[in-house]
Amino acid sequence: MIDIFHNVPEVESVFRLLLAAGLGAIVGIEREIVGKSAGLRTFSFVSLGACLFTIVSLLGINHLVPLSETADPTFRYNYDPTRIVSQIVVGIGFLGAGLIVFRGFRVEGLTTSAGLWVVAAIGTAIGFGMYLIGVVTAVLVVLIFFFLKRVEPEHWVVHNKPPDHHESL
Predict the structure, then answer these.
(1) Of 124, 149, 117, 104, which is closest to residue 55 (Cα–Cα)?
(2) Which of 56, 59, 146, 158 is least surrounded by Cβ atoms within 10 Å, i.e. has the fewest?
């Protein structure tokens, strides 16, 4: 990014939030088109939220524990921003689990749940300033959502159905 943004972290943070929300929305378009319960807005919110948690974990320590010349020079912070990131993964796991539904012998929502999990990682990457990784991952997810389903031969897909009474005889 341009050097001016490093002097004002909030400006770069706003860029990161906008990019994360935009990438989440782009990824969520396919889910919206096919009528899944989590679509454009949900994917955008998950990416945005993961990005915000990441930014707060990176910048928040400066606001919570101000550094000053009078501070004890031997004092060390026990602060690790990856702790918040690990909680993002756990939180998205709970959200994703709520999307998985068993209907008879079918399981629905796994792809949407996995997509939310990856879009949280995209938001986290953007929050850390890893723009290329976030954008490339978003492109890969869109390609997977739009194209892999369409190239799967029908015989590759296993349709779970109750066993036929005559087959067991």
Answers:
(1) 124
(2) 158
Question: Among 93, 22, 9, which Cα is nearest to 55's?
Answer: 9
Cα–Cα distance, 28 to 87 (Å, whole number): 22
Q: Which two tokens stand for residue 26?
A: 């782009």
Q: Of all helices (H) and strands (E), which one includes residue 133?
A: helix 131-143
CA distance 98 to 75: 44
Per-residue pLDDT reduced to its tens digit, 133-148: 999 999 999 999 988 8
Per-domain boundaries in the chain = 3-64+81-149
Between 168 and 87, the more confident residue is 87
**106 DSSP β-pair partners:** 103
